[in-house]
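Minutes, project check-in
Item: structure for the 214-residue chain
Input as provided by the requester:
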Amino acid sequence: MEQTKIALLGLGLMGSGMAGRLLDAGYPLSIWNRTPEKTKPFVDRGAKVAKSPRQAVAGAEVIISMLADVLVCRDMWLGRGEALQGAAPGAILVESSTVTVEWVHELDRAAKEHGCELVDAPVTGSKPQAQSGQLLFLAGGSTAAVEKITPLLKAMGRDVVHVGPVGSGARLKLINNFLSGSQVAALAEALSLIERSGLDTQKALGVLTEGAPG
């Protein structure tokens, strides 16, 4: 797998860390980002910088997308970026962006028509985990495709969990985010109660974080 040609589309907080890990592992890497300046740190490390998504994916066996949202992803894959149009038949597309299940299925249909296979593999973790290779990939797709890309995903993360068919990764990621958001809201309410009741905030938080809520 170390000789597998990879294209990585998107060098934001997550994509930049992922690119670094792939280069550390010795993978031939082509990169594209909407803001070209962000590609500069990776040039000296051997990455090939493309002027467009279509140019980046040319000849790539695995194409990874890590972008902001569905609108950006659709424009990159199916719109002005022409990434899918430039992908070689047989390539495995990896949608790691946090997107809707509906978009994943739309991209899956388009990928199949083009002769490619899609794995939706969003991640848990943030910038520090991306930089240190400690992301957790939630993969949805065929067993064969997930197994084929597992070595390169593990170059960027601590593990890969195959959670089901295409769309399963995106669904579980959204459930994960829902739970995280609920916890943030609950913590905000708890802090408000602590402050209004006159309790010592630091002591109260210590009790909460060291107990079951922690």
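Outcome recorded: Residues 168-197 form the longest helix (30 residues).
No further action items on this chain.
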